[in-house]
Amino acid sequence: MANTTVGIRLDDNTQARLKKLGNSRDRSPHYLMKEAVASYLKREEAVEAEKALLKSRWERFELTGEAITHSDMKAWAKTLSKPDMS
Q1: Rounded to an integer, what is the distance from CA 51 to the centroid of its chain?
Q2: Per-residue model confidence as pLDDT tens digits over 6-62
């Protein structure tokens, strides 16, 4: 996999904080930035996936009108805490 260099402008305070944290963890500021970007992308991609799922569920509801009542959902949820007797 090819790597690409990307520049980022950070203020002096942020750079100092990165360096201090990197030193305390025996990691480079570069490593910390890569980890921060990866963590951010994972979190935001999960948000986008959830939004897409909710959108598709809403579209299905609009087409079919199919829904689950609150009482049915509560009854089903209660079965989750009961041991399986089969």
Answers
A1: 11
A2: 899 999 999 999 999 999 999 999 999 999 999 999 999 999 999 999 999 999 999
Largest pairwise CA distance in the chain: 64
Provide the sign of the torsion angle of the four alpha carbons 12, 16, 18, 19, taken in this order: positive
Joined together, the tokens standing for residue 64 give 């079919």
d(CA 69, CA 73): 6
Spans of all domains in the chain: 12-79
Task: Sort residue 82 into left (φ over 0), alpha (ψ -120 to 50) or beta.
Answer: beta
Task: Report which residue type is found at 37.
Answer: V
How much is the pTM?
Answer: 0.70
